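PT: before anyone asks, these are the final sequences, not the draft ones from last week. 770 residues across everything. Please model them as a single complex and drop the result in this thread when it's through.
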Amino acid sequence: MDIGADSVLEGLGEAVLKLDTFGNILYCNQATQIVTNYERSALFGKPIHYLAFDNTDTIKSTYELNAAVSKGKLVVQGWNRRSDGARYWAEMVLTPLYENGEQHTGFACIIRDITERKLEENALLESEERFRLMVEGVQDYSIYMLDVDGNIVTWNEGGQKLTGYTADEIIGKHFSVFYNSNDLSNNKPAIELDTARTVGKYEEEGWRMKKNGSLFWASVVLTALFNDENKLIGFSKVTKDLTEQSIEAATIRQNEERFRMLVEQVTDYAIFMLDEKGRIISWNEGAKRIKGYELQEVTGKYFSIFYPEEEIFNGKPAYELKIARQVGKYEEEGWRIRKDGSRFWANVVITAVYNPDRVLVGFSKVTRDLTERKKAEQIARENSEKYRQIAREMEVINTELSRTNNDLEQFTSIVSHDLQEPLRTVKSFLYLINDRIEKGRIGDIGTYVNKSILAANRMKELIENVLNYSQVSKGQLKTSNLTLNELFDHVLLNLKGTLDTTQAIISVERLDRDAVVGDKVQLTQLFQNLISNAIKFTNGRQPIIRLACTVKDGTTLYSVSDNGIGMDADSTSKIFDPFRRLHEARNYPGAGMGLAICKKVVERHQGRIWVESQPGNGSTFYFTLWETGQKPSTSYEAI
Amino acid sequence: MKQYKLVIVENDEDERFFMREEFEAFEAFDVLGEFVNGDTLFEWLAQNPSDLPDIILSDLNMPGKNGYDIISQIKSNPAYTDVKVIITSTSPVISIREKCLSMGASEYLIKPEIFVDYGQYVKELYRKIDS
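LR: through. Structure below.
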């Protein structure tokens, strides 16, 4: 070895040693001392494994030396121990040395401390390993690597799960196995690779095929991988199955679409959305029909355009939104304005709409046109009022009919009883007269004849009264404008004889209202009957009679009071019946028709008649006129 | 022959006379009294509570308290539970008869054509109440 060579050896950073054929150290350079921390002198003659971590392991070193001989060179890595005990990761290159090309003379040995590089390598490896494990463990994504030609070089669990291929089955295959024939004939896999190669990435959603031939909707990202020298080394491919997600999304989309169509096509209700400020953002058929605006006319407008001016001035639209915001809903009925300016009566529901984060995003507004309904209700009310009116009229007619029926019954009773009685009397006495004549006992005949004449007279009186009574009941009332004073004058003139005989005192106490509308003949008879009763039932006293007319609660109350014999409470309700007499004809002659006629007259003038009395304390007869039903066209006031 | 205590309520004096004649002639009736209307009848009843009649034979139409008044007043007073009211009238009208019976009258008898025919009437009345 010449000096030049020596100096090179000595200058090298790596430890360079020369071993004999047994591996004992014959020479080592300067750097050996730095790498191993042994003095050079301490190393001479030592076997090479003296530098190893286990410096007694001759087996390994022998094997390595043999291997170096047989292979011509051996590179091994492993832990070595320095003189201070510290270890270092050594790369050792063993090269057998020959003399004359055949005689094995020993080994050249180079040792490098590559601890740092190794640690870095390991760290990298470790992280790569972790990453690999992670990728392999991913379940939801198929993640794998392709080589530059598109052959699969790695596989993960997600890939297996998604496609059904195991790593054994798929590695080495071309990724086009995932494509259907249509895609293949379109050369899709190659195009995708080209795209990724050119722009770095290819991304799409599309149908892919599983091992069993079924298709799935895949989201695919194909990324080109380049090394440090920017040379393409392959591709990574990430695939996700969107089938399920896609169905869900499609369903939601479909539902939303259906719902939107449904809302849009509803014509009976105006249904539209407002943004959170109250501007219109959607519109349906019903809104178009009810309000008259087209979508493009209202979009973006404030919903207050539907409100009457005074409501806007009053801040009503804003108020409604405020309430909807506060309590979630606002509901009312009110007038709204169509595009043509006409009004309609609307039922309005405004509902606040929130997104899933409970943030107000706007309002839905549902408006119904109730105008027709209101009109129908009004018509129904009017109809019902009409029917009520008819019912009232029917009731009046019914009352009238049952009164007529009553009258007929009364008349039957009158004919059968009251008229028959005197007839029987006459007949009976005629029989007796005949009997006495036959027997020649004519002494009684005078009495019998007298009784017959009395009975006949009574019968005449009854018939007149019945006729009178029926006269009052029948025919049209001849109403005219009268005054009480003229009626009284007329009555007093008719009764002049009786009044003079009895010396009756008649006073008109009070006349709140002199004017009266009615049938002159009937009203005259009414007052005349009442006054003549007052004169009649006095038990011989001088009659004192008071006439009055007072207005109470808008009703005119007429009264005739006397100082007569009066009557008990039982009798007050009976005395107005036809042929009702409270007293014996001997004391108080009469047919018992006077008050029945009074009652009839009052009823025909749509009033009431009653009496207040106590036995011995006189009576007061009261009556009203025109209390129920319509008054004649001429009112009292007009007179 | 069973005896019945009877009162007659009739406002016509002559009619009353002939009625009484025939009832007394028949001998089955003890005529306790005659009254012109319900007022005088009830006065008498009140004064003679121990001697109540079995039968009140009453006309329907009378001044003062009439036949209807008598039915309702007798039927509404427990003291007169055993007293029968028989209404008699000239009227053959069925509704009047029905009204009397529904108010509580025991019988409704139509008066004879003439006063002097009460003989047959009394026999008929007896037959009805005795059956």
